[in-house]
Sequence to fold (155 residues):
Amino acid sequence: MRTSLTRTSRTLVAALAAGAVALTACGDDGTDAGLTDPDQTVDNTNDGQGIAVGEPNGSDDGAAGGTMLAGSEFSPQERADMIFGQTEEQARNLALEFGWTLRVSREDDMMFPMTEDYMIDRITVELDHEGEDDTAVVTVVTIELEGGPETFRAG
Fold:
């Protein structure tokens, strides 16, 4: 009985170790097949819904990954005003241009799962269908700031 249990334990440990190695080998390289812009990379530091744009270079030149995000020279209100009325695609392109991390938390009545982590300067937007063409546009902007999040509403 003891020999049988030892073999079973060894087999189980070997199987778990092989699985762990296989999962490690499939690690994320920071790319996402769903992204079409080769300069866009997935933000692996949060929930995966935000997009970190630019080259994560650790420098202080304002690029994503540095100590200061590009576009931070704009006040929170100015950033929100730039994003209001934009479609999701337009908002993401704006985020790409300025090196902001952006995610969508809601479109009309559909809420999307969000993590509770906190990333300074991350922008979370909410979309509502408006206008004659019923296009989903940004109506609420929340920016995670050092002193706490600040939410802005269009109009």
Notes: DSSP finds three helices and seven strands in the chain. The two ends are 75 Å apart (CA to CA).
